[in-house]
Amino acid sequence: MIWEELQGELDALQHAGLKRRRRTLEGPCGPQATVDGRDLISFCSNDYLGLANDPALVEAACAGARAWGVGSGASHLVSGHLAPHAALEEKLAAFTGFPRALLFSTGYMANLAIVPALVGRHDAVFADRLNHASLIDAVQLSRAENQRYPHGDLSALEHLLTASRARRKLILTDAVFSMDGDLAPLPGLLALAERFDAWLVVDDAHGFGVLGRQGRGSLAHFNLPAARRLIYMGTLGKAAGAAGAFVAAATTVIEWLEQRSRTYIFTTAGSPLVACALDASLDLIAAGDARRDHLWQLIAQWRDGVARLANARWRLLPSPTAIQPLVIGDNHETLRIAGALYERGLWVPAIRPPTVPVGSARLRVSLTAAHSAEQVGQLLDALRELA
């Protein structure tokens, strides 16, 4: 029976140490979390600048609700595109250096919009093997030929591009990889895109607001121009502290996405109060050098502390970003370590397959500007005991 099959598969996930558990927070997003009445220090969120509960964003959202209500009422192309949406798109375009920007409800929906709108049958996508699930799904929806290159390997990508006879070519990559924390070689990727007349789509979910001058993102980090063949996606629910996403690109590209992106056309526009909050968020990001400097100090403290742990089996990946993965390896051992930390009042997520490759289960430590050096020290002390 179908129900018994489902239960059997759930039991198999449990046995393999792969069943996920959802926890309910009893307070706003921040480094201090309360779960089931228990106070914890959270190293789980992607709120990299600590803006999710910032008073300026809360006040902007409240003012936006009073002026514009709560819902947009329709899709952007019907009657749901309100003045706060238009103002935010203009501000995002100026902030990232592109001619135009287009808002989406989530980063997942933005990625599902871009790829199928630009390529299809008889075309080819060249994707990094460690790309986010949304990018993988976007390629499948496009029906284009899917060619995956080894993580960050420009030579392998060049070989695939040289051999391809596809009508259109699209290079697809995360900017900051969400489970490893490392950066894509964006200058080399753009050079290959120019050489082989390909689109370059960059998902900067974990770089926007954090990297580059004034937090303008991974392209700014590498001093890359807003080239015509570049399509830039940034999410607004991580460092920006709210919700949604945007795509920034040349005017023609944005106009095409407006006409052909199903996840833009056939969904209700986001709340105007969120757009108002994000308008305030961009100001805080631009003026957020002190937050980012504090974050870099915490990253250095963490990496220095882990290097001193007496456990050769654990491996800290070479990440320069706020995502700091500590690879344990075995699923059950990773769960055990995460559980032991939880009992000590430290909440660190255990990441297991299929999110990461088999045998590379890990603790994914997310550091934010809202953390203190003392809180990072507590995590290091606990790991030192467990090591």
Automatic annotation (TrEMBL):
SUPFAM superfamilies to which the protein is assigned, alphabetical: PLP-dependent transferases
Reaction equation(s) it catalyzes: 6-carboxyhexanoyl-[ACP] + L-alanine + H(+) = (8S)-8-amino-7-oxononanoate + holo-[ACP] + CO2
Binding site residues for pyridoxal 5'-phosphate: G107, Y108, S178, H206, T235
Any one GO biological process: biotin biosynthetic process
Cofactor(s) of this protein: pyridoxal 5'-phosphate
Positions annotated to bind substrate: R20, H132, T355
Record pathway: Cofactor biosynthesis; biotin biosynthesis
Pfam family membership, one: Aminotran_1_2
InterPro entries, alphabetized: Aminotransferase_I/II_large, AON_synthase_class-II, AONS_Archaea/Proteobacteria, AONS_Proteobacteria, PyrdxlP-dep_Trfase, PyrdxlP-dep_Trfase_major, PyrdxlP-dep_Trfase_small
EC number: 2.3.1.47
Keywords linked to the UniProt accession: Acyltransferase, Biotin biosynthesis, Pyridoxal phosphate, Transferase
Domain Aminotransferase class I/classII large, first and last residues per copy: 39-383
N6-(pyridoxal phosphate)lysine, modified sites: K238
Record GO terms (molecular function): 8-amino-7-oxononanoate synthase activity; pyridoxal phosphate binding
Family listed: Belongs to the class-II pyridoxal-phosphate-dependent aminotransferase family. BioF subfamily.
Entries under HAMAP family matching the protein: BioF_aminotrans_2 (MF_01693)
Function: Catalyzes the decarboxylative condensation of pimeloyl-[acyl-carrier protein] and L-alanine to produce 8-amino-7-oxononanoate (AON), [acyl-carrier protein], and carbon dioxide.
Subunit composition and interactions: Homodimer.
Name of the protein this chain belongs to: 8-amino-7-oxononanoate synthase
Organism per entry: Accumulibacter regalis
Protein's gene: bioF
